[in-house]
Design goal:
The structure holds 2 protein chains of 2 kinds.
Chain A lengths: L4 E14 L2 E14 L3 E5 L6 H8 L7 E6 L2 E2 L5 H11 E4 L11 H11 L6 H10 L15 H14 L4 E5 L7 H18 L2 E6 L2 H4 L4 E6 L2 E7 L6
Parallel strand pairs in A: 3-8, 3-9, 6-7, 7-8
Antiparallel strand pairs in A: 1-2, 1-4, 4-5, 9-10
Chain B lengths: L1 H4 L4 H34 L1 H5 L3 E5 L5 H10 L2 E14 L4 E11 L9 E3 L7 H4 L2 E4 H6 L7 E4 L2 E11 L13 E5 L3 H4 L8 E8 L6 H11 L5 E5 H54 L4 H31 L2 H4 L14 H23 L19 H4 L2 H22 L2 H32 L6 H9 L7 H31 L8 E7 H13 L4 E15 L2 E2 H6 L7 H5 L2 E5 L7 E6 L12 E6 H6 L7 E6 L2 E13 L10 E3 L10 E6 L4 H14 L4 E4 H40 L1 H13 L4 H38 L8 H22 L10 H6 L1
Parallel strand pairs in B: 3-8, 5-7, 14-19, 16-18
Antiparallel strand pairs in B: 1-9, 1-10, 2-3, 2-6, 2-9, 4-7, 5-8, 6-7, 11-20, 11-21, 12-13, 12-14, 12-17, 12-20, 15-18, 16-19, 17-18
Helix pairs in contact in B: 2-9, 2-10, 2-12, 2-23, 9-12, 9-17, 9-23, 10-12, 12-14, 14-15, 15-17, 15-25, 16-25, 17-23, 17-25, 17-26, 23-26, 25-26
Classes of the chains: A alpha/beta, B alpha+beta.
Chain lengths: ~230, ~850
């Protein structure tokens, strides 16, 4: 694998058993994402976007083909080893924010580093929360925060382990237009500052337009792979 | 619709209802058992007395009484009973026993059950003794060996396994020995001052009206101090005791049901919260508030009925075991009968309680806005809390609890007191639980590693049932711990008497002419004589100028008849002893004769019973000689010390010439030296008896253990109910746990870490719940020790730790069993949940 590629997908196929017959959700998909670039995976419902994201992040196993994340073949790892890889190299942003309701904003941000057993992580979490504009809401619980604020916490959490790659699944899907715009700016700002690779799954072509590359999926196959050099800076 | 709506959650709903199963089971079992017991008492009433009529007196029957007895006819048996030392030559062992010298064929109903069987009918002719089984085992005695009572050696012809009117083994300080009455004189045991009971038992031909006869006898034997007992009167006394036991158990069962009902309310609360979206959709498509409310009310009602039916079936099964649990307290054989009333009561109570407690969360449905279907927003509970209907339901629940308690205790006051006590206990438990939760949140070290903090935070997840679980598990722990601590206090108190230089062996029934020689014998063994106390027996003749008989017959008097009519054993001395303190009046050490009125000292308890105060006059009858006395002082006495204490103490100079016996108090250093001394005393002075502290301790321990076993059996229902509520709570929050677990897996947590977080959450829960119960139990035991028993309070840490470990262990085990599969859910689910 080219050292410049943080993610390499080779002939990735995923089949599910549906009743008596096999359903192919992804069909021999291949592509590479270079370190430090941004990329959007777009497509209609049922095109296999989420399945592809799950496989790329090591959340699931493929039926055929391989995924190399930072040079590591995920198919050769067991579930706990894949967890370690995720914890080390990956950051996530979800549509539904996915914060732990019993932890404060600050505690939620600290979780990925604490899962590694790291101590003294609070200053970094505080710094990130300040950067996303929540310096004064650190001790609030998710239920006390608005949707936009929860997604900011989620962003801070995604960047705390200095990930090599950030997977974002419809990060603005649950937000109003104004908040969406702010969150989008924040994602790209943070990403640029950290030099992280960004892989975005979305329906929203406007959002996809912020990335330097758009991979279109349809019926489980890559139907287009467009690069927009000028935006990818 | 109710049926269709429940489709996806039926197993979960059934689990909620399982919380009430044990409560209903306990209720049905106890009620059914109560009925079986009542029937058994009716059927076997005659065996409780063993005769149709019994006359009992503490002194030999007078000539008048004898002529009345003669005139009654029927078959008659005579018994003279007293306490004496039994000596077993085979092992050299001695122990205080209750000797019953019997003539005639008593018991006429029931039998003295023996090994070998049938010896109850033969020992009189054989001139042998029947000895209590426990006593024989203690000294390794077998049938064919001998027992020496006084100066006579009896062959043991049978082992007594069951006596009609005696409870289980180990429950009495003086186990029974039956001997033929015609050999009593040869024992030389009944002497002056011995505390003896004389009885005559009658069996009449069928059809004789014993109740009328008893009434006539009351008049004919008036003033003879003879107690008349019939089958009916014995049944009443026994029935009252059994009913108290039965009502107590029923109330404990009700507590388990109440806990279960709280569990139901809590589970349904969470269930409804998870159903809010569906309810809103129903409202959007046109369902009226009433209709949506009924959908869930019907679900709760049907499941309550199913839960009650399951409880009733289980209760019927448990009922067959209850006679075995209560065996030592029952004097009758209780057969299993299936009681329709008990089943009906269980079913109706279960249904009413389920519906009432389910109503609390269900009324929130009325406030669900159809807007929720299109705008999922956080809604506060505040509106529901302010709902006046909620307070109406609380009121109805309070009324139901009071009505149930009153129906059990048959007294308004007790019923209300029980309900109030329950409310206070629940309130205290909830308060303690909240305090613990707050303290842990406030002072939990933030430097602890992430899994510890995360598992603690999990206790406060939305829709958590932490408080209810702490209440349910805490109450069971409280009952068991409290019981253990009280038992410990009582046993320590008795054992404390054996410390330092406290006396631990008492010899009584010493004749005046044996006193000096006995003292020398004790000294010759190198043992001290702490006290050598004279005892004079007397009776009350009049109080404040009124004859005691007149006071007894006066229906307006509240002085108990036993206090008026009993034989008092008094002493005389010039000093107070270390167990006494004057609380009123002045201690008079000596009254040189001739004193017209003697100033005596009364113990505070008996002064209260007799309604006497300092300066009140009374006349006592000292074995035929009337003596004017006045209350000179009131004493508080610590009865818990093993040494002779007295209701009435005379000053020196008054009773010295009266007929008397002596009591000698000493201390032995070991069980062996105590046994050696008792053997020597029994050989030299066969009529002298001894009470040994070890014996008292053993008996108290045995009785407490048996009571504790019964209460523990009932407390188990509370603990098990708590565990079922726990399972229901874990199942209810399973979806949330899965979500949390999947998120952590996505962020890189390993399965082992997720399992650790889950286990630690249950560990916290078990710890907090058991601590709630244990802390409250320690506080209540301390209060009891301080104010009720006036005893020192020490905590036995090891058993408390065991209780905590047991509750924690069970909580973690059940929690983890019900969390199987959560840690291994694939992280991909997080993306699926997204869409």
């Amino acid at each position: 694998m080219d050292i410049a590629s943080v993610l390499k997908v080779e002939n990735l196929t995923k089949r599910y058993r549906s009743g008596e017959r096999d359903l192919t959700v992804l069909d021999h998909v291949s592509f590479e994402v270079e370190t430090g670039t941004t990329c959007a995976i777009v497509g209609p419902s049922g095109s296999g976007k989420t399945t592809l994201l799950g496989l790329c992040a090591g959340l699931d196993r493929s039926s055929e083909g391989a995924v190399f994340l930072n040079g590591v073949n995920l198919n050769e790892l067991d579930e706990d080893a894949r967890s370690r890889v995720r914890n080390q190299y990956v950051g996530f942003v979800f549509q539904n924010f996915q914060l732990i309701p019993t932890l404060t904003a600050l505690e939620n941000v600290m979780v990925p580093l604490e899962l590694r057993g790291e101590r003294g992580v609070q200053p970094r979490a505080e710094e990130l929360l300040k950067r996303v504009g929540l310096g004064d809401r650190m001790d609030h619980y998710p239920v006390q925060l608005s949707g936009g604020e929860q997604q900011r916490v989620s962003l801070a959490r995604a960047f705390i382990n200095r990930p090599k790659i950030l997977f974002a699944d419809e990060p603005t899907g649950n937000l109003d237009a104004e908040t969406s715009e702010k969150i989008t700016e924040l994602i790209f700002d943070l990403n640029r500052a950290a030099g992280t690779t960004l892989v975005l799954v979305t329906h929203d072509l406007d959002l996809a337009g912020y990335t330097g590359r758009i991979i279109r999926l349809k019926g489980g196959k890559v139907v287009a792979d467009e690069r927009v050099e000028m935006l990818d800076a | 619709m109710a049926w269709r709506d429940s489709r996806a959650h039926r197993s979960r709903l059934l689990l909620f209802m399982a919380s009430i199963i044990l409560g209903i089971a306990a209720l049905v079992a106890i009620t059914s058992f109560g009925e079986s017991l009542e029937r058994a008492v009716d059927d076997q009433a005659r065996t409780l007395l063993g005769a149709d009529l019994e006359l009992r007196s503490a002194e030999p029957f007078s000539t008048l009484a004898e002529s009345v007895i003669d005139s009654l006819g029927g078959a008659q048996s005579r018994e003279i009973a007293f306490a004496s030392m039994a000596y077993f030559p085979k092992s050299g062992g001695t122990r205080l026993a209750q000797v019953r010298a019997l003539s005639g064929e008593f018991p006429y109903y029931g039998e003295l059950e023996t090994i070998p069987s049938g010896q109850g009918a033969r020992y009189q002719a054989a001139g042998g003794a029947l000895v209590d089984q426990g006593l024989m085992r203690q000294f390794g005695v077998a049938v064919g060996d001998s027992v020496k009572l006084g100066t006579y050696m009896f062959p043991v012809v049978g082992e007594l396994t069951k006596v009609p009117d005696q409870a289980g083994a180990g429950m009495t300080i003086a186990p029974r020995i039956y001997i033929p009455l015609n050999l009593l004189e040869q024992t030389g045991l009944v002497r002056f001052g011995s505390r003896v009971s004389y009885r005559v038992f009658f069996k009449f031909e069928p059809g004789r009206e014993v109740a009328n006869l008893a009434e006539q006898l009351e008049n004919r034997l008036r003033g003879q101090r003879i107690r008349i007992e019939t089958v009916e009167s014995r049944k009443e006394t026994f029935g009252a005791v059994m009913k108290n036991l039965y009502r107590f158990l029923n109330l404990v069962a009700f507590i388990a049901l109440l806990l279960g009902s709280i569990g139901v309310a809590s589970s349904i609360h969470v269930y409804i919260k998870q159903k809010l979206a569906s309810i809103a959709v129903l409202r959007c498509v046109g369902a009226q508030i009433r209709q949506t409310f009924y959908i869930y009310l019907i679900q709760a009602g049907v499941l309550g009925l199913i839960g009650s039916l399951a409880g009733a079936a289980l209760g019927t099964l448990i009922q067959t075991f209850l006679p075995r649990v209560l065996d030592d307290f029952l004097l009758v054989e209780v057969d299993f009968i299936l009681s329709g009333t008990a089943l009906l009561k269980g079913l109706s109570t279960g249904l009413v309680m389920t519906l009432l407690f389910a109503l609390l969360p269900l009324i929130a449905i009325r406030k669900v806005s159809p807007l929720l279907a299109i705008r999922a927003s956080y809604e506060s509970d505040a509106a529901t809390r302010r709902d006046p209907l909620r307070w109406v339901i609380y009121g109805i629940i309070a009324v139901v609890v009071v009505v149930f308690a009153v129906s059990q205790t048959r007294e308004w006051l007790y019923g209300i007191a029980f309900a109030a006590g329950l409310a206070i206990a629940f309130g205290l438990l909830a308060g303690m639980a909240k305090l613990l939760i707050w303290l842990v949140q406030r002072f939990f070290p933030r430097s602890w590693s992430y899994p510890w903090r995360q598992s603690l935070a999990n206790l406060y997840r939305p829709n958590n049932q932490t408080l209810v679980l702490m209440l349910a598990l805490g109450l069971g722990t409280f009952l068991i711990t409290n019981l253990f601590l009280i038992q410990d206090i009582l046993l320590r108190q008795v054992a404390a008497s054996d410390s330092g230089n406290q006396p631990n062996l008492i010899f009584f029934d010493i004749q005046v002419d044996q006193n000096e020689a006995l003292g020398q014998l004790v000294h010759s063994k190198g043992l001290p004589v702490y006290q050598n106390v004279p005892i004079v027996t007397l009776r009350l003749k009049s109080i404040r100028g009124r004859e005691v008989e007149a006071i007894r017959d006066d229906s307006t008097s509240s002085i108990p008849s036993w206090a008026l009519m009993r034989e008092y054993r008094v002493t005389y001395r010039d000093t107070l002893i270390n167990t006494e303190a004057i609380t009123a009046g002045t201690w008079v050490p000596e009254m040189p004769p001739p004193a017209d009125t003697v100033l005596i000292s009364l113990e505070s308890g008996i002064a209260e019973e007799l309604q006497l105060g300092v300066g009140d006059d009374l006349v006592v009858d000292v074995q035929g000689v009337p003596l004017n006395a006045r209350v000179g002082s009131i004493r508080r006495v610590n009865w818990q010390r093993v040494q002779p204490n007295f209701f009435i103490v005379f000053p020196k100079g008054v009773l010295e010439e009266a007929p008397q016996i002596r009591v000698l108090v000493t201390r032995t250093q070991s069980a062996e030296s105590s046994a050696t001394l008792q053997q020597a005393v029994v050989e030299a002075f066969p009529n002298v008896s001894a009470i040994d502290l070890t014996l008292v301790l053993r008996t108290v321990e045995s009785i407490l253990n048996k009571i504790a076993f019964v209460i523990r059996f009932m407390a188990l229902f509370s603990i098990l109910t708590g565990l079922i509520v726990l399972v229901a709570a874990v199942v209810t929050t399973r979806f949330q746990r899965i979500q949390e677990s999947v998120l952590l897996r996505t962020l890189g947590a390993r399965r082992e870490l997720i399992r650790r977080i889950l286990a630690q959450e249950y560990l916290y829960l078990g710890l907090l719940a058991s601590l709630t119960g244990v802390l409250l139990a320690v506080a209540s035991a301390w209060a009891l020790a301080r104010f009720a028993f006036q005893a020192s309070f020490q905590i036995a840490w090891l058993p408390l730790l065991s209780i905590v470990l047991l509750v924690v262990g069970l909580t973690v085990l059940l929690g983890m069993l019900n969390s199987r599969g959560i840690a291994t859910r694939p992280p991909l689910e997080i993306l699926r949940a997204e869409g």
